[in-house]
Design goal:
heterotrimer, A alpha/beta (about 110), B mainly alpha (about 210), C alpha+beta (about 130), B: about 210 residues, Helix Hairpins, two-stranded antiparallel sheet, rod-shaped, C: about 130 residues, alpha+beta, globular
Amino acid sequence: MSFKIATIADAEAAAGFALAGVQDVHIHERKEETLAKLDELLASKDVGIVFITYRVADELGFEFKRRIRAKKLLPVVLRIPDKTGWVPKVDELQEIIRRTVGAEIIVKGGS
Amino acid sequence: MAKAIGIAPTRMELLKLRQRVTLAQKGHDLLREKMDALVIEFFEIVRKIRVVRTKTMQQLSSAYRSLSTCFAVQGTIETYQAAKEVKKGIEVDISTRHVMGILVPVIEAKPVERHALARGYGVYATSSALDEASREFEKALGDLIKLAELEEGAREIALELEKTKRRVNALEHVILPNLKSMVKFISMRLDEMERENFSRLKRIKAMLEERE
Amino acid sequence: MSTDRIIQFELARLNAHLPGQRITLKDALSSSNPQVVAKDGSKHKFERMELEYISKIVHADDWDKLRLPILIAVNPKLGRGAAEISGEVEVKVISQILGKERRDQEIVIYRPEIAVVRAKLPTTTQYFFMVG
């Protein structure tokens, strides 16, 4: 089945994704607006992937985490770095690995 | 203890309890196999993620750089304008595959790289900086789509793995020991009752013999 | 007892991912969208590259004999970490992947080998947990 891609990011990253052909780009300005947009995307039947920058996701904080925990299989939500390359100190995947396998296995990969 | 649990110390109850132990043991062994299998799946997908993440982050960096260049060469406003005007509508094909009780996405990018004419910037079609930036982001998008598929898959598998692990632990450390100790208690109690019964019968017999 | 119900529920769920009907390699290769449907209606897609890899190992005459997905049968009686592959053609495919020369109706493979098989054929193999 065919699905669209959406992006939530700062203006520059949004421009980049737009140039690549992504239709639905939301430039983050205010928390409430962005959360509303995220809810819209999560409820949509047409959107398959949502790319959101680490920075914006971090700013949305717990509200973001809560929605991710509660969401269905689609859309897939992936956090990506913006042009500053900022990533949170705790790597989510690393955390999952530590919890499930109970050992420190380093996930390398520029993240 | 039997009174506290509300199970009468009868042979029938002992039999039922033993059946429950067998069921719990079977459940434990099978779920542990499922857990082991999920660990295999998880490690394989993490291995893939490591590879794709490195590649993706490099490509994304490159894309952001070329966008900066484009702002410098082409002008910020012009770049944003082109971003607005460019032809859009990228789509992905998403299907699913099963990994033991959970569904994991399979995502395929529909051909992403478009050449300059198809992009349709209009007036800005001749800018090579714009072309470069678009191309770099198109490539990054392709990588990101793959990464999205893998990371979502990893997340689903991890969740199922955690759930399964909890069940296995509950069976191994709580349910089975409980059931087994109940079996032991009732078994002992039944033996005790049988001994009491036996000695009572002996006393009665002795009393009857005395009367004669 | 509610714990019994939970156990029964989890056991029933163990094989929920398996399809009601498997399809032959032949049909899968000729289909434009090779997939199987699980009992709950959810779809499982076969990766074309895996199908092509298998088709090179299996003689064309046997394409209609091989049913997909190939089942990795887990039976606790075999011991932890062991699984069984059944079927002459299936055994041939798995043996090839593991670099073995086996022409049996059944073989038992162990955890590291299972990992190799799953990495090579993630969509055309599936675990089957023997509950009965």
